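Before relying on records like the one below, remember that each one covers exactly one chain. Contacts with other chains, cofactors or solvent are not represented anywhere in the record.
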Amino acid sequence: MREMEKGIHTDFARAMTYGDYLQLDTLLSAQRPLSHPVHHDEMLFIVQHHVSELWMKLVIHELSWAVEGVKRDDLEPVFKVLARVKLIQQQLFEMWGVLETLTPSEYVQFRDVLGRASGFQSVQYRKIEFLLGNKEAGAVEVHKGRPEHDELHRLLHAPSLYDEVLRHMARRGLPMPREALERDFSQPYTAHPGVVAALKVIYEDTERWWDLYEMAEKLVDVEEHFQLWRFRHMKTVHRIIGHKKGTGGSSGVSFLRAALDHVFFPELWDVRTEIQKSTARSGG
């Protein structure tokens, strides 16, 4: 039997414990299955979505910080934050594999207890989309009359991370089209050939624009991993419910598949076709 080390603290009658710091009593009491009798796999469904929401909370925390960093023209710390977001997205992607152990026969045993509740109503998912630039005013209406409405409304009308990067490029002297800088930020972003031209300058002279080149690639990382996450979500739903309608009223798999067509940073993908010989230096 392993002996307790002498230095380990054991008296916590008046001291904060690990569980106290993390408020585990609150966290671990939030998993409350509604099926009756309780179906074994409902716990998996709840835990999966709780953990997803926790990771999304951190993504929002990091992306909000990144927006402020770009506004201050302080790019280097933002690179680390966006690298962290990419790794969080990898965790979110892999989590779908756990939910895929839930078979269609098991899920139908408790699906009805969700009522009209749906992931479409996730406030945090919507915040992430708004922070990245996928603005959809109709999505805010789902939360009308609820406490989260005002914050979503604010993010809908605020510049996204991409908007702030384009503004930063203009401050650095790159020729940026006015239409991309002075616009209604609550509206979906529309690609502009002038932005492609400015990004082409960066990609063809990375010696001069190394930090903006790195920022561009970090944004591509985030978008790529977001799309992989959405694709895995769609395939998981297809595997579990087929082509049933979603609990929130959507068309289900077809609705999720259509979302894959959205591009957050269109010019960062378009510029790849235009890049010619450059002064690129190796690095990572």
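The chain has a mean pLDDT of 94.
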